[in-house]
Write a structure and sequence with these properties.
22% strand; Peroxisomal Thiolase, Chain A, domain 1; eight-stranded mixed sheet; alpha+beta; binds 3-hydroxy-3-methylglutaryl-coenzyme A; globular
Length: 445
């Protein structure tokens, strides 16, 4: 069977940056270490006044197409995943195609365009759609452009404000990919949950503490479902495990839970038994509470073992390096985590060809999905081409007053005009409103 997967990836960050320990924490009267150590975040990325989900998506896609020498005729689908859409009818992908047509000189009239919504997991669902379309043989030799783009802003004063972010990830999905092949096996954990939602409102209503529990419950369910088709997962089976990363502290919790699950009944559990005992088994307890107390105690001890810490440093920590500097990009987050892991391995000179990644995607509302990916020959040049460090360094650093101004400017309920903080160059910009309330865009050299 021909391999199908991600051939190329490009990342586009919002052009502004908010320093969390340096600027945000003092304003909130909080210890900077709550951000750096607790949540695991140094900074959030923000869109400048001329940026939005369309400009960031089109900018990432343009770079990807130019780098890969792709023309509109090579693309049979454009799927945009977002939870920051501004139109209930016209999909963001049409705006993105309109932007790209301005610079590529030909059109996407024969490409199927759509928009995917399921909170943060929609980016991965769009990958699925592209994979299935190619596997079904309906692609006529063409590939799919999948773009995850979001301005993840929370209302001011909401606890989620610390985890904001803005950026886009563009991916080209094709046969014989150069980055990763996707597994056919998948596992799902999905339930009707009310922990994070936006009922026709821009900023989310969030029950933050509950959202963490829902993330963990659905992720565990997805892992069990994955194992039911792919067989038991062992820590040696995968090199990195990129998870959806609303903030690195969330992944720290998910990783511990996942590790406990995958070492159960393995020689790793046996090796650790002398130090921390064996994992509690439900059958050995008369009531749930006692069982859960024992589990918590085991997890606390497991977290402190050298074996776990070495696994975490090798398998999870490399997935978090970009996220720490940009915050939550919602639909793009898990794809940033994959890129981050591959980038770290590339910089360390590692050869990952043929190795496996275990991807854990998640969207509130709620659904988790687990699948595996195999790193393909040629991955190094795809990762080397990323200029994410330069982009992060080039961001304008917001003062607190700047932050309040730009947050208001992006608030759909407010009518605030703000001077741009940065000067756009070689990128698409928002260019005002059209006669039917549509947004207009132009490319700036
Ligand atoms: P909070 O109340 O501001 O923070 O809310 P906290 O008091 O819980 O502290 C956060 C962590 O910092 C804790 O770590 C503290 O102990 C630690 P933990 O105990 O959890 O490991 N801490 C410190 N550490 C060191 N030194 C200190 C210090 N002080 C505190 N001095 C919350 C945090 C995440 C709830 C909030 O930011 C929030 O509501 N965020 C938005 C919701 C969210 O991101 N949920 C994640 C799961 S749901 C999800 O991932 C889906 C999502 O992406 C949306 C979608 O799918 O569309 C959000």
């Amino acid at each position: 069977m021909t391999a199908v997967g991600i051939d190329a990836i490009e990342i586009w960050t919002g052009n502004l940056k908010l320093d969390l320990p340096g600027t945000f924490a003092p304003q909130k009267g909080e210890d900077p270490e709550k951000y750096t150590k607790g949540l695991g975040l140094n900074a959030s990325s923000f869109p400048d006044s001329y940026e939005d989900i369309v400009t960031m998506a089109a900018n990432a896609a343009r770079r990807l197409m130019e780098r890969k020498g792709l023309e509109p005729d090579d693309i049979g689908r454009i799927d945009v995943a977002t939870e920051s859409a501004f139109d209930n009818s016209k999909p963001v992908s049409t705006y993105v195609a309109g932007c790209l047509e301005q610079v590529f000189g030909s059109d996407f009239h024969h490409a199927n365009k759509g928009e995917r919504k399921f909170a943060c997991i929609a980016g991965t669902q769009s990958l699925d759609d592209a994979y299935n379309w190619i596997r079904a043989g309906r692609n006529r030799g063409r590939g799919a452009l999948v773009i995850a783009t979001d301005t993840a802003l929370y209302a001011r004063g909401d606890a989620g404000e610390a985890t904001q972010g803005a950026g886009a990830v563009a991916m080209y999905i094709s046969e014989d990919p150069s980055l990763v092949e996707l597994s056919t096996d998948q596992g799902y954990g999905s339930a009707d949950e009310t922990d994070f939602l936006k009922p026709n409102q821009q900023f989310p209503s969030v029950d933050g503490k509950r959202s963490i529990q829902v993330y963990l419950a659905r992720m565990r369910e997805a892992l069990e479902d994955y194992e039911s088709v792919a067989g038991d997962v062992h820590p040696d089976d995968f090199t990195f495990a990129p998870f959806h990363t609303p903030f690195p502290g969330m992944v720290r919790r998910a990783a511990l839970l996942a590790y406990r699950h995958v070492i159960r009944d393995t020689s790793i559990e046996d090796d650790l038994a002398a130090e921390i005992g064996r994992q509690p088994r439900a059958e050995a307890f008369d009531d749930d509470e006692a069982y859960h107390d024992a589990l918590r105690e085991y997890m606390d001890a497991l977290k402190e073992t050298e074996r776990y810490q070495a696994w975490y440093d090798a398998t999870i920590d490399p997935t978090l390096t970009i996220s720490r500097e940009v915050g939550n990009w919602y639909t793009g987050s898990v794809h940033v985590a994959r890129a981050s892991a591959l980038k770290t391995a590339f910089e360390a000179g590692r050869d990952l060809t043929g190795e496996t990644l275990l991807i854990g995607s998640y969207g509130s509302g709620a659904q988790a999905e687990i699948h595996a990916e195999t790193v393909q020959e040629g991955w190094e040049s795809e990762i080397e081409a990323l200029d994410v460090d330069e982009q992060l360094d080039a961001r304008y650093e917001l003062s607190w007053a700047d932050y309040e101004e730009i947050h208001d400017a992006h608030n759909h309920e407010m009518d605030v005009d703000v001077e741009e903080f940065t000067t756009p160059s070689d990128e698409f910009v928002f260019d005002g409103w059209g006669r039917m309330g549509e947004r207009k865009y132009r490319y700036v050299e």
